[in-house]
Amino acid sequence: MSHVVDDAPLSSFHKKLALYSSGGPFVDGYILSIVGVAMIQITPEFNLTPSQQGLIGAAALIGIFFGAFLGGWLTDKFGRHLLFTVDLIALVACSVAQAFVGDAFWLIILRLLIGFAVGADYPIATSLLAEFTPSRWRGPLLGAFVTMWFVGAAVAYIVGQFLLTFDDGWRWMLASSAVPALAIVLLRMGTPESPRWLAKMGRTDEANAVLAKVYGPNVTLADLPEETSSNVTLGQLVKSGYGRRMAFITIFWTCSIVPLFAVYAFGPAILEALKLGGDLAHIGSAAITVMFLVGCLVAVFLVNRMGRRPLIIHSFLWSGLALLGLGLFPEADPVVIMALFAAYALLIGGTQIMQWVYPNELFPTEVRGSAVGLASSLSRIGAATGTYLVPLALTGLGIGTTMVIAAIVTLLGMAVSMAWAPETRGLTLGQAAALDPAPAPSRAKATAAL
C-alpha cells in the first residue's frame, strides 16, 4: 500500500490549515471566558439571580450541544469546505448583537446562537485537518488545535480586565469576539475540500485534483491509504460496533471539560471563594489560563512520544488529585491554593488535546464529522449542567465540596480511560478507524521517535 500521503512532509499548506482550523477553539475559549469577567458588570446592571448567572454562563455550552451535532451531520453530508466559513459568519453577527441587548433573556438567546455556531465549527474543522494531515503529525496538530482555546481564554481575560474600566464595558467585551471570528473567516477562504470525503462521495476527479494541488502533480487517490472499515452510516454507528468508542469519547470528554468549563466561566468567583479576592482573583485567572496553555503544549510534545493511552490516564489522575487537594484544604495559604490550581491547569492538558485526537482517529471518513459532533454535543450536556450549577454550589455547598465533586468527576475520567482507551500512535487514519486496527510496528516506532 502506498503511503505517499500519510508519510508526506509537513508543508506550508498543512501549517496554514492547522492555523485556520484552530480559529474555532480560539473564539470558543474567548467567548466562554470573557463572560466570566463581563458578569461582574452584568450582574448588578440586570440584577441577576444566581440561576440567571448560571444560565448566561451555560447558554453557549447548550448551543454547542446542538451546533456540534448538526454541524457534524452537515459536514458529512455536504462536505467540509462550504461550512468551514459559513458557521463563523453567523458567529460574527450574533457577537455584535450582544452589545445591544437590554435584558438577560436576549443575552441568553444570543449566547445560545453563538454556542451553536462554535459547536458546528468543531467537527467541520477537525475533520478537515485530520483528513489532510500526515500520520506522524496528526496527533500533534490535532492536539495543538485545542491549545488555541486557552490562547483565546487568556486574551479574553486581558481584554476583559481592560474593558472593566469603562461604563458598559461588558457590552464591548461580548461584542469583541466578532473581531477574531471575522479575521478567521477571511483567512479560511480558498481552503480546498477534503479528498477523502470527495472520494467517499464518488467525486474522484475532484479528489485527484485536490491531491495533485496539495501533494504534487503525480499524487492521486491510489496514494491515499484505504480505510479498512466498511461504510457506516450515523444510524448504524452503535450497532456496527462503534458504540463503545462513542461511549468512551463522550464520557472522557465530559469528565475532562465539566470542571474546566466551570473554572473558566466562574474563575474569579471560585478564586474569591478560596480567599483570593479582588484584582488577585482576575490576575490569578489569567495566570492559571497560561498554565492551561503550557499544559496543552507539553501534552502535544508527549502525544507521540508517550502514546495516547498513557497520556490521557496520567493526565486525569494527577489533575484529579490537584482538585482533590483544593477541596480538602480550601482554607490553605493563598500560595498553596494557587500552586494546586496551577498544577490542575498544567496536568489536565493531556485530556484536553485528546478530545480532538481520539474522536478524529477512531471513526471512518463517512461518519467522522458526525461522530465528532455527536460526542462534542453529548459532552456539553454535562458541561452545561456543571457550569449552571457552579454558582448554586458555591452558595449552597461551599467551595470545598464543590472542588471535591470536580475531583470525583475528573477521576471518573481516569477510570473510563483505563478501561477503554486504545492506543492509536503510529497508525494511519484508516487503521486507527478500523474496529480491530492492525498496528504497523515500523511506522509506530518511527512515529514514537519523533
The number of strands is: 0
**CATH level-3 fold name:** Growth Hormone, Chain: A
Oligomeric grouping of the chains: single chain
Number of helices: 20
Portion in beta strands: under 5%
**Contiguous uncertain segments of 5+ residues:** 440-450
Backbone structural class: mainly alpha
The largest sheet, given as strand count, sense and whether it forms a barrel, is:
none
The CATH architecture would be: Up-down Bundle
Index terms:
0% strand; 78% helix; mainly alpha; Growth Hormone, Chain: A; 450 residues; disordered C terminus
What report would you give on this structure?
This protein has 450 residues and is mostly helical. It has one domain (12-218, 232-448): Growth Hormone, Chain: A, CATH 1.20.1250. It is built from 20 helices and no strands. It has helices at residues 12-21, 23-46, 50-78, 83-97, 104-132, 135-163, 169-175, 178-188, 195-200, 204-215, 238-265, 267-273, 279-305, 308-328, 334-347, 349-361, 365-396, 399-420, 429-433, 441-448. Helix 11 (238-265) packs antiparallel against helix 16 and helix 14 packs antiparallel against helix 16. The two termini are 23 Å apart.
